[in-house]
Amino acid sequence: MGIGWAASNDDGKLTETVLTFDISSLQVTITYAMPKARARKRKLPIISEAVVKSNSTSIAAQSCRNTIRKYHVLMKRRTQLEQDPQEHKRDLAEIDRQITDLGGLERYQQLSSLGQQEERGGGSEKIFIKWLKELNLHRRSETSGKLRLLEVGALKPDNYQHHSSWVEWMPIDLRSRHPSITEQDFLLLDQKEHQNKWDAISLSLVLNFVPMPTDRGRMLQLAYNFLLPDGFLFLALPLPCIANSRYVTFDHLKALMESIGFIEIRERWRKNGKMGYWLYQKKSPPPLSSRTSQSFAKKVVLRTGNRNNFVIILDPSVQTTQSSNPP
Ligand SMILES: C[S@@+](CC[C@H](N)C(=O)[O-])C[C@H]1O[C@@H](n2cnc3c(N)ncnc32)[C@H](O)[C@@H]1O
């Protein structure tokens, strides 16, 4: 499975596609027929069964990526049209029809869960857990209790089951695939109830799913408010979102997160890789004056050329705070 990710312009038209896939997982075997000593026939490759199998795997993987990509584009367009639903009634109905034809969120989740298994040798929670262990969080004192983790965008209910002796997690998703997964939009969580509640929050392949750049920013700002002081935010994104965006670079992401109050403590990606992973810790937000001077509330072109349009825009109306009183 690969990661399909699409960028579109402000009208929702597809401008470019980032498709990363792992051909190393396809075992391509080409068997040549050994020519008989006397026969002077041309050597013709005999395509083995493995090749046929790998070709069909590759076609299936390509189709998965295309569906995920189309879904992202349609969702972005839908969110734009929803700004004025009366005006765009017919377009919205058409977009909804196309989303249904694709199989809706259910199909998207099925394809994503295949990705979780195959793409990364398991879910990204392995990396998150490894980092938490490096920070000795599995050896918390008895008085601190288990680490309280909010898993956003959970395709499976049991991602943290192996670590249940020290992790107590709540999986949520826009669409629940299991009774133990709470069907809940993270952006609509009760702010008072969740203020300073969680030791850790996971946003693995969720931020890139969110169609509107300001909602992506709000997601990070709310995650900050929902964490306890010194709490941890795990972020996983398709690498091109950061490595090849017109509006985001690695330094920009770091500075944007710092402007919220997050300090980057771990980072993992490799050149030409598919995924990027980051671990942040909640610290005091910088003074308001420095936050406004370094504005992340608008789109700024940072690189030109053949890039994608992934962008995160902070919402100035969301106040980030470390205190237990809601802003
Ligand atoms: C690509 S899947 C990622 C699943 C998994 N976390 C992983 O790393 O493979 C994205 C999931 O995030 C969910 N999601 C997106 N926005 C969300 C939101 N605002 N609140 C809760 N779940 C959300 C989607 O419904 C989808 O199931």
TrEMBL record:
Pfam families, alphabetized: Bmt2 (PF11968)
Mind telling me which Gene3D superfamilies this protein's record contains? Answer: Vaccinia Virus protein VP39
UniProtKB keywords: Methyltransferase, Nucleus, S-adenosyl-L-methionine, Transferase
Where located? Answer: Nucleus, Nucleolus
| GO CC annotations, alphabetized | nucleolus
Principal location class: nucleus
SUPFAM superfamilies per the record?
S-adenosyl-L-methionine-dependent methyltransferases
Q: Listed GO molecular functions? A: rRNA (adenine) methyltransferase activity
Indicate yes or no for the key word Transferase: yes
Q: Which family does it belong to?
A: Belongs to the BMT2 family.
| Protein name in UniProt | 25S rRNA adenine-N(1) methyltransferase
